[in-house]
Amino acid sequence: DGGDGPPVCCASGLPCFFASVRCACEPSRTVSAAHAAAAVGAGGRGSLSCGCGASVLRATVRWPPSLLGRFEALLSRRLAARKRWIAAVEVALSGSPPLGEVTALLGRAETMQLHDDARAAELSRRAAGGEAWEARAAAMLAGKAACSLGALQAHLRA
Fold first, then answer.
1. What's the pLDDT tens digit per position in 76-98?
2. Which terminal CB of the chain, N or C, has fewer other CB atoms within 10 Å?
3. Do residues 20 and 31 touch, judged by C-beta distance below 8 A?
4. pTM over the 0.70 mark
């Protein structure tokens, strides 16, 4: 493709990340593998619109099959982790989980880059409410300690 990055699909305008198809007569007109059938459809006059038959098209695969297999396995593991996170969040949001559990789920959301997920937003809202409650409770306990009978007696003696 001549560049460092993947060629751009003339049908969608998106990068042809995995594979692409182009005609020898017009190498700048490239389509992604996903759009290849439509590109050579209509009697060879699809998105490539050069009129050449499918026999002169050149398919390019940017990644070897072994690497694609590893990539697919990685994506499968990430999808499974996301599904487990969603299940854990659904359980947490259905009740009143401890603040530590909410914070841990939020941390996993950040790690998995799910911060824009609506469930993560609800967790964040609950975490903020829990933190505010803890701060109020700590202030009340500190105030109670300052107003205890012993503290009051010590203050009166001074």
1. 998 999 899 889 888 888 888 88
2. C
3. yes
4. no
